[in-house]
Amino acid sequence: MILQWLSGCARFSLQELYLTGNQINGTLPDLSIFSALKTLDISENQLHGKIPESNKLPSLLESLSIRSNILEGGIPKSFGNACALRSLDMSNNSLSEEFPMIIHHLSGCARYSLEQLSLSMNQINGTLPDLSIFSSLRGLYLYGNKLNGEIPKDIKFPPQLEELDMQSNSLKVETLYQLDLSNNRFSEKISDCWSHFKSLSYLDLSHNNFSGRIPTSIGSLLNLQALLLRNNNLTNAIPFSLRNCTNLVMLDIAENKLSGLIPAWIGSELQELQFLSLGRNNFHGSLPLKFCYLSNILLLDLSLNNMSGQIPKCIKNFTSMTQKTSSRDYHGHSYFVKTSQFSGPQPYDLNALLMWKGSEQMFKNSVLLLLESIDLSSNHFSGEIPLEIENLFGLVSLNLSRNHLTGKIPSNIGKLTSLDFLDLSRNHLVGSIPLSLTQIDRLGMLDLSHNNLSGEIPTDNLDLCGPPLEKLCIDGKPAQEPIVKLPEDENLLFTREFYMSMAIGFVISFWGVFGSILINRSWRHAYFKFISNFSDAIYVMAAVKVFKWHHRG
Prior knowledge:
ten-stranded parallel sheet; 553 residues; transmembrane helix; cell membrane; Leucine-rich repeat, LRR (right-handed beta-alpha superhelix); alpha/beta
């Protein structure tokens, strides 16, 4: 074989060898004799048979491609001891070993270096094992094999994984009800293959780098209760097929690049929705009136879009927000999905990321149910704040800031006694601050800045305490110490001027004294004579003091 012809002195110096697209046949020989080899490509040839277990790879080998040959069997355990191996491509062969065994054979030091593993178009069978041991793996390609069994609910993927392709296998996905691939580095488009996942109730692909459209086949998931696609790079409009997911409780597609009009069918067809997050996208147009059909809605986030028009008065139909709730109402509450008739319903956690008191925070399950919130901030909504908002007694957070709202603040807004957060800043509101705000004793953050409000600030808030008031809170201490912070530019200016003056003063004084001594010889002699006389005087004074002290003793 041609590799044997190169086994002379070239084996010590050869670093790259490309033999792609020839008629090379025979079995794969022991490659360890090529001690300097870093790249070997023998793809698209006629290598056949099993790779002997005794075969070893060069210790410096980084890339090995043997794709499109006729290799059989499996991968030798010695391949897993190639500590520098970064890319292994054995796709389009006739490998038939079980996938868990292949992973076991590669679990030597290669698991720390391997970045690309392609085993597509083989006869590999078996189930999906734990893949998290490959700490550097970015691409895993398994399509066109015979992988079988169910995808484990708690399957673990490599922490650096960006691309995963498992299409055209025999994996049983019909019974999979929960799939969480969030917080990875998956990129490219989301595969449009979801029609096979008939039982899927919870799908979380959030916090990745997916791009392209939301797959239309997700609309075939009739049991889907939670769809989380937050923080990706998804584009285009919300697919019409999602209107079929009538069991959705949570739809979170915030922080993407989605555009177009917000579909009216979200309100008319997805009436089970409790949590709807569409913030930080490029949606435009007005808020559809059919949104008012969302009687179960508890969280509505449309912030940071290009929405316009008026806030509809029919928001009074958000009946779940008209009822005050407490932690006792939802204590121990969980969300369940229907699995088989034998295993019964299975619980899952429902999470939501909320902008809460100036920072994003994660809330879960029963706590989430208590945080009834409307966030329409940073849009182009105009007109007056509808008076009907006064009837949403359960509201805990209301953010209408950074819009073009006009008119007065509803006079009875103080009826929203559950409010903890109220931000109406940066609008064009006029009139006085409603006296009814004094009825909200739990209000933790109120921002009415940058409007055209007038009149007096409401008084008679007898229960207020802490600075700048003289009355202290219950524990005798202020509820929160006031924070006085200079604007960044002022602080920077002060620091710069201070240190500049210090530096200039030091330079002038230093060179004013020592420069003169260095330049003028008579001054220099006088200076050192002064230092000598001064030190002698100190010495004599100290000696006299010591002598007197001894005599007194």
